[in-house]
Specification:
The chain is mostly beta strands. It has no helices and 7 strands. The chain has one domain.
Length: about 100
């Protein structure tokens, strides 16, 4: 099992396989997406399988909007649906809060 994730850590083959509100994952699990052997993003699920955090390990090709790598986005209720927030905070691995 993954450290701090009772559901463990799973690798997914493409970004569309990361959990969403409609396509829930397993409870308390971190999903890692690798592209060409490099960790590109992670998504962490809550006890109900809904994502609560996304972690991005690149600046999405836009260093002006994402000058800090890695960074994290919370998931929040936007227009009646759970979505990844456009707001981000730095991610150091230690500051992750569930």
């Amino acid at each position: 099992m993954g450290q701090g994730y009772s559901g463990g850590i799973e690798n997914v083959e493409n970004e569309k396989s990361l959990p969403t509100y409609k396509q829930r994952g397993r409870h308390n699990t971190r999903y890692d997406y690798y592209q060409n052997g490099k960790l590109k993003s992670s998504r962490i699920t809550h006890a109900n399988g809904i994502p609560i955090k996304s972690i991005h390990y690149s600046n999405h090709g836009n260093p002006h909007l994402h000058p800090i790598v890695p960074h994290q986005h919370s998931w929040e209720l936007i227009d009646g649906q759970w979505k990844e927030s456009s707001e981000w905070t730095p991610y150091s691995g230690e500051n992750y809060e569930r």
